[in-house]
Amino acid sequence: MAFDGITIAAVRKELSDALTGGRVYKIAQPEPDELLLTIKNNSSQYRLTLSASASLPLAYLTSRNKTSPITAPGFCMLLRKHIQNGRILSITQPGMERILNFRIEHLDEMGDLRTKQLIIELMGKHSNIIFCDENDVIIDSIKHISAMVSSVREVLPGKDYFIPHTQDKVNPLEADRALFMERVFSGAQPCFKALYTSFTGLSPAIAHEICHRAGGNADLSTAALEEDGRQALWEAFSSMMEEIRSGQFHPCIVYEGGKPPVPAEYAALTLTSYPADRRKDYASVSALLEDYYAEKNTITRIRQRSADLRRIVSNALERNVKKYDLQIKQMRDTEKRDKYRVYGELLNTYGYGAEPGAKSLTCPNYYTGEDLTIPLDPTLTAGENAKKYFEKYNKLKRTFEALSELTLETKAEVEHLESISASLDIAQKEDDLVQIREELIESGYLHRKGGGRAKKVKITSVPFHYISSDGYDIYVGKNNYQNDDLTFRFASGGDWWFHAKGIPGSHVVVKTKGAELPDATFEDAARLAAYYSRGRGCEKVEVDYTEKKNVKKPAGAKPGFVVYYTNYSMMIDSDISGLKQVE
């Protein structure tokens, strides 16, 4: 699933067709490593996302807008000063490198016509957005790279811009048959690997596709190929390069089995190595990238924003699990308390028979009717030994009584923290984190900024809302506070309530409106309960369900914790692909 040189070639063509000659109308920087350009061209308006995120570098046209910070970052302000209202002269890709170069014409402070370059390098953790003048001198960049960070190239204002040559690869668009044969068949290695390690811009997926089109086995060694096989591989490679030169791109996503099916690969060319029924074709590579990365980008961003909360929850959970394990061990140690009580009672009854200095006493145990041997301290009398055993018994009894309450409290805290961790896993927006942060503050794991006088933040996050296959409204809590509100304030007594059995998960409520639910709706709600729980991805999850009137909240219980004694259960998968979500 690489954003390879061929995908960038398809993006370049699409951007060039849509944006060349257009004017840069707005420039925003919604994320520290991302730009959103609004461009007007041919009576149309386009939004261009340029992201230099280390985990998700991207460039594509989008229909979605993003909220920008109130105060624009310095790099954004610099671009506004130089190229806002500038005209895009060209969009190029050097060779098959993962680089796009936007040449933009604008008027400077003196009214003279000048040209600048906005360059985005889509190279994983080395991704960057660099702003240069017409002489390839760096004016600024979204990420500054000093010599201490990279010995290959500095990216700093005033430095000359150049493309780092880090790999000995050839531009595939310039390769003839002789060069192809020389590079691919110079050693013995799998055919697909020989392709993508020899030529710029080829991902392993595209290399597999070339081998498939040649009718060969991608894993077959190049040394094992006969002349016919080599010729077929060259012809497949040459044909694909011709598609790229002529701009004949056919973007597609292919899916692998699962519930729901998940994307396995995407490419800017048709992947014929996958069955047609597992392939979804797109007319636009931007539409493909927007669909493919929308969820992944959201998850990546939200995980970055929730990293501090995850760390707090993880550390607290680890401490409480260790604490609980220690308490359970101590509880086991108290199991012998009754033995010491019996020793003391028998010594008070039969201690007169113990010889002075004896190390043990065997006497009848009137509780079992059998003889029992009691260890003795030879330096003490039988009465003193009995007193010692009673002291041990009373100490262990007090420990047992204290631990009986403490272990319940610690177990409840572990379950509470696990439920918060599960809430962090399903958070999709920054607003979803607000209530989780509030819960951690209320539980004493976080301090509110500004102290006790600070106002509580405004809550805008709401539960997920789905429509069942029969048209019933189903609601899913995103965190413990929403679970409580959903179950005890929103739901009516006759509504149905669902929850994954014995594992952290969301409360799911189906609004019945006084009607009897169809079986399909029960299954839809159960699938949602399974999906929004720690059981997601399992083949089957056990889900409890009951009418809401049977669900109770014990006094003093943690947020999200409930009890119920009348319920049904079903085993269900977590495939919710057939359910419609209401935004």
UniProtKB/TrEMBL annotation:
<keyword id="KW-0648">Protein biosynthesis</keyword>
<keyword id="KW-0820">tRNA-binding</keyword>
<dbReference type="Pfam" id="PF05833">
    <property type="entry name" value="NFACT_N"/>
</dbReference>
<dbReference type="GO" id="GO:1990112">
    <property type="term" value="C:RQC complex"/>
</dbReference>
<dbReference type="GO" id="GO:0072344">
    <property type="term" value="P:rescue of stalled ribosome"/>
</dbReference>
<dbReference type="GO" id="GO:0019843">
    <property type="term" value="F:rRNA binding"/>
</dbReference>
<protein>
    <recommendedName>
        <fullName>Rqc2 homolog RqcH</fullName>
    </recommendedName>
</protein>
<dbReference type="InterPro" id="IPR008532">
    <property type="entry name" value="NFACT_RNA-bd"/>
</dbReference>
<dbReference type="GO" id="GO:0000049">
    <property type="term" value="F:tRNA binding"/>
</dbReference>
<comment type="function">
    <text>Key component of the ribosome quality control system (RQC), a ribosome-associated complex that mediates the extraction of incompletely synthesized nascent chains from stalled ribosomes and their subsequent degradation. RqcH recruits Ala-charged tRNA, and with RqcP directs the elongation of stalled nascent chains on 50S ribosomal subunits, leading to non-templated C-terminal alanine extensions (Ala tail). The Ala tail promotes nascent chain degradation. May add between 1 and at least 8 Ala residues. Binds to stalled 50S ribosomal subunits.</text>
</comment>
<dbReference type="InterPro" id="IPR043682">
    <property type="entry name" value="RqcH_bacterial"/>
</dbReference>
<dbReference type="Pfam" id="PF05670">
    <property type="entry name" value="NFACT-R_1"/>
</dbReference>
<keyword id="KW-0694">RNA-binding</keyword>
<feature type="domain" description="NFACT RNA-binding">
    <location>
        <begin position="464"/>
        <end position="556"/>
    </location>
</feature>
<dbReference type="InterPro" id="IPR051608">
    <property type="entry name" value="RQC_Subunit_NEMF"/>
</dbReference>
<dbReference type="GO" id="GO:0043023">
    <property type="term" value="F:ribosomal large subunit binding"/>
</dbReference>
<comment type="similarity">
    <text>Belongs to the NEMF family.</text>
</comment>
<comment type="subunit">
    <text>Associates with stalled 50S ribosomal subunits. Binds to RqcP.</text>
</comment>
<keyword id="KW-0699">rRNA-binding</keyword>
